Amino acid sequence: MPRAKANRRPRARTPIDWEVTGDNDDVAAFLECLQSIPLPDDAISQNIQSRPTKRAKTIGVQDSICIAREHMKLTCHGVTTSQQIPMTKRKDVGYLIETRLSQGTPNHDHWCLLLKPRAQYRGRRFGLTLPLEKNTMTQSLKTAMNVAEVQALNPGEDGCIWASLDVTVEQVEDSIHLIVSIEVRWNESRTIWGSERSKHNSQQSLRDQVFETWFSDLQLPKASGAQPSWSPQDFYEAACVPDKDKLDAAVSSMEVPRLESVLYPFQRRAVQWLLQREGVRWYLDTQRSKAGIQPYALPALSDHPISFLQIRDVDGNPVWVSPLLGVATRDASLFRSIQELRGGILAEEMGLGKTLEMIALMLLHRRPESPIMVYDSFLGRELLATSATLIVAPSSLLDQWLSELNRHAPSLKVMFYPGVRRLAKLKDADELSVERLAEQDVVVTTYEILRKDIWAASDEPVRSMRNEKQYERVKSPLVQLSWWRVCIDEAQMVENWTNNAAKLARKIPRVNAWAVTGTPVKDDVQKGSKEFPCYQGRS
Amino acid sequence: MTYKKVRKNSHATKGEADNDLSDLRGLLLFLRHEPFASDTKIWNFLTTFDKESFQKIFNLISMRHSKRLVRNEIAIPPQKRYVITMPFTAVEEQHYQSLFEELAETCGLDGRGNPLQGDWDPEDPAVQRAMRVALDRLRQTVLHPEVGIRNRRALGHKVGPMRTVTEVLDAMLEQTENAMRTDQRALLSATVVKGQIFACQKRVHDALSVWREVLAKSTELVDESRVQLDREIREALRMKPSVTGSLGEDDSNEEDDEAAEDAVSPRVGEAKRRLRSALEIQHRAVFFCANAYFSLKSKEEETPPDSDQFRSLEKMEVEAYQRAKEIRKEILQEASSSSSPYQRR
Q: Do B97 and B37 reside in the same domain of the chain?
């Protein structure tokens, strides 16, 4: 493996270096280089465990997890020095000294370590090729050295894998003993996003190597080369089916105030599930014969967030890693938030009453008393809070929504939002002002309107102007309200999720978000028509 | 080895980016389920390799009852299925037939299914590919003339989907007319070239008569195109006031208005293009005629200088060159009028 790598780079030295080299000059230059590295400020705290990286380059303390620790012993014979070399110990030498493993040409279990200074080292150049002790090569060591070759200094960014190199030099008679310690470290992630660098291919391949070498049982099956097969069925199998036996006891008593229709038992379970996803639930206290809505904490799926697995670092401390996200952390609570999504996908089969279930949810779970203005972290603004639910539907289903709302829940205050362009044309602008929309229970609009409103929803570009701005830019009310709930209906109608309607839908400030669709995964029309069952010639 | 693997993986993930899961990703984007939704790499990993996490995520955030599961809890009204056979309308029939013939030809067959050439081989991959495409397009056309990318392209780019048979008919008429115009233009161009060949052979009289013929036809064409352009412009003007007049009724109205705004100018543009191409042909004919007059004039053995014939030829030559100049001006007028304001700046 390393040979292939060596070929990828122009070799700095001639092939003769494959033989064990290192004359006195080289050794002396190497020692000079090593001694030029400053000792850690307090030499006492050389406890490897707590050692933070010392270079000034690193801003702030980047906690890293030690994955593996490897050592190499190398000996350089026949060195003549004018005076005894003091025992020299330096940490984190990777920023000045480059290391590489190479395999002996004639003898394949004969390994050498190449040492040379990095480009930024100002002192005398050197090149040392030292043999490893026989039979000390392991896969762990190989991987560790590979990491050291690719990333020998702490990049100081989240999620990056790197190696720290410590070197100890000692003279015994006319030979010099070199002990190289390698620690493979994985920087902890402090956000769910991961850093730019951690997404590079080089880091990706280091992660793959780390998993392959030390946690091969956790590795994603991608390396096995099996072609992944995926069918829409996978989604339908994954989707949750509310447990009948568990839920029916409480749910059978569910009464939806002001709902003109009676829910089927399975619809009640569905509504219970919807409520739970919004952080409340229907409860029944048989002793006190009380029933109603009460707060509900989603049960932790398990003690670790999705895609995270527990491993032990080299000292046996528990650490969480996610092969999927490519991150490691000691505290998985940060990533627990990724599954604290309020809302979800309601994917009932066609005709089972998705609309009715959503209406029941609107009636049951209202926005609790809250400050008038709330801060929306997605847009980074203070917004007027409303208890209204915003429904986005295809234009063809607009009338159906309005009539269903009227039929099942005539008490709800419903309004159709026609888009800023239409608002501007209205003589009485207050008719559909932000405040008016906020007073509603339900506001219905279409994807078409979303598409047209995008220009009024994005922040205006910052530009310096000679004069004061003359016109106030129109703002879409859709992004001026913190909606209690946003619900996109027949979401599969949004064919392309990079289009403007989709962009705005993502942007709309909300507390709870629901995607309602009978066919969340589908083949498109073009494909569909290929499956036209039979063909009768017409000529 | 490692590197090889990595390369392979990156390829595999790229290939998966366009699977039929993009809809699901869209939902996650809307729900802001991060980082799975925004990070393409992670999403691809999730859907290709990490099925366990995929299941956990969607088990957590999505819910589905199928009818089969809840059948015992509901009384679904009995469902009836009706199969209604729909005959083609005359327009659709015509469209289908012409498409059928066209596609049969691409497969190397005539309209009755007989090979056009003796060595037609049904096993030939190219023929089979053509047949598959043909089958696809015909099936799609049965549903609607615009289903399928190829069919849509064949009917020309339109602002929105075609809704009525009349629109399809219009498109068909337009296409046929365009095809005719193209052929006509090609014919006239070829005739001009024929005249040039005569001229090279020093058969100036033959050349002149050919060019005059082209001139007559192209002049006719120019007049026709002019009338059509006028009509289109008037039509466009007639549509415009109605756009501003009917504001603020309901949403669907607005949609139509927008569509009209977009649709009107292309039609005028099309008429302009047609006029321009007619003018180009006319210009060539006039110019070559002038050329022929000059050639005749300079043949001293036929037309001695200072003869009446010489003078009349000279006059015709000058007139023809003058006319050619005017035609050129007209052709370039639009380009110059749109660019001159910028030049004056």
A: no
CB B66 to CB A520 under 8 A?
no
- Contact flag A491-B73 (C-beta cutoff 8 Å): no
B326 and B195 housed in the same domain: yes
CA closest to B110 among chain A residues: A539
CA closest to B47 among chain A residues: A230
Asked if residue B149 belongs to a domain, the reply is yes
Question: With pLDDT > 90 as the criterion, what percentage of chain B qualifies?
Answer: 15
**B20 plus B141 within the same structural domain:** no
Q: Does A395 touch chain B (CB under 8 A)?
A: yes
Number of independent structural domains in chain B: 3
Residues of A with CB below 8 A from B58's CB?
Answer: 235, 238-239, 345
Compute φ and ψ for B265, nearest 5 degrees. -65, -35
Asked whether residue B127 falls in the same domain as residue B249, the answer is no
- Do the Cβ atoms of A502 and B251 come within 8 Å? no
Is B216 found in the same domain as B293? Answer: yes
Q: How many residues does chain B have?
A: 345
Q: Which of B108, B137, B154 lies at the terminal end of a domain, its last residue?
A: B154
User: Is B193 found in the same domain as B125?
Assistant: no
**Alpha-carbon span B182 to A303, nearest angstrom:** 73
Question: Which residues in chain B belong to E strands, given as ranges?
Answer: 62-63
Q: Which residue of A has its CA nearest to B39?
A: A193
Question: Is there a domain that residue B202 lies in?
Answer: yes
Q: Are residues B106 and B20 in the same domain?
A: no
Which residue in the set B73, B136, B143 is minimally distant from A264, CB to CB?
A: B73
Same domain, B44 and B137: no
| Residue range B17-59, pLDDT digits in tens | 344 567 788 888 888 888 788 888 888 778 777 778 888 888 8
* pLDDT over 80 (residue A166): yes
Domain assignment present for residue B168? The answer is no
- Which residue from A164, A137, A148, A132 is spatially nearest to A209, judged by alpha carbons? A148
What DSSP letter does each residue of A243-256 carry, written as one string?
-HHHHHHHHTT---
Alpha-carbon gap, residue A328 to A335, rounded angstroms: 10
ipTM exceeding 0.90, yes/no: no
Residue A159 at interface with chain B, using a CB cutoff of 8 Å: no
Q: What is the per-residue pLDDT across A378-402, written as a single tens digit (0 to 9) for each?
A: 888 888 888 999 999 988 889 999 9
Domain of B141, in residue numbers: 90-154
CB contact A471 to B (< 8 Å):
no
Expressed in percent and rounded to 5, the helix, strand and coil fractions of chain A are 30, 25, 45
Interchain CB contact of A201 with B (< 8 Å): yes
Q: Which two tokens stand for residue B185?
A: 């233009």
Element (H, E) at A130: strand A128-131
Distance of alpha carbon A437 from its chain centroid, rounded?
35
The domain spans of chain A are 2-41+61-221, 343-458+474-516
Is A240 part of the contact surface with chain B (CB cutoff 8 Å)?
A: yes
Residue B79 falls inside a structural domain: no
Domain boundary among B134, B154, B174: B154
Per-residue pLDDT tens digits for A479-538: 888 999 999 988 766 656 667 778 888 888 899 999 998 877 764 333 333 333 333 333
CA angle B80, B82, B88 (to 5 degrees): 165
Rounded Cα distance between B191 and B213, Å, is 9
Cβ–Cβ of B48/A513 closer than 8 Å? no
Q: Which fold has domain A343-458+474-516?
A: Rossmann fold (3.40.50)
Which A residues in the span 283-322 are in contact with B, Cβ-Cβ below 8 Å?
A: 301, 306-307
